[in-house]
Here is the input.
Amino acid sequence: MRSIRLSALLFVALVLLPISAYSQTTWIVDQAGGGDFLTIQEGINAALDGDTVLVKDGTYTGANNKNLDFGGKEITVGSENGADVTIIDCQHDGRGFYFHSGETSLSIVRGFTITNGYWTYVGGIECISNSGPTIQDCIITNSNATGGGGNIYTIDSSPLIRDSTISGTLGRE
Here is the structure.
């Protein structure tokens, strides 16, 4: 009898655990309260590798909606309906995204307008320390920096930027 129970337990462990290990979750960010989280960083913090953080339409400002940090996770953070209607406005106080933990091309930002960033090296997206995220279908515009690039800054990194518009860099101040 004990052998049957042990076999059943082993079966469950070998069959069901790998399925749960590959389960992917879509986390909804809606500043109006209709999702799992109110801010983008909260969604990123909850996500595990392979998850998606889906951001509803709107203009996202304030803490936890700028200086967004994947923390090395291989996740997708994307808008529901594209860059024209999903905006990260840094309000001249911070950058949009900060990649510094060796993120790979499986760390994806998709479908945002990132605007009005202001930080030491970049206002839009900063990629350092061997990070290589994918930036897709984004508009990165009107950002400023005191010591480097305006919209995108990379050092020792190779981001993949696809189907995106980069404009209105204000440069050094």
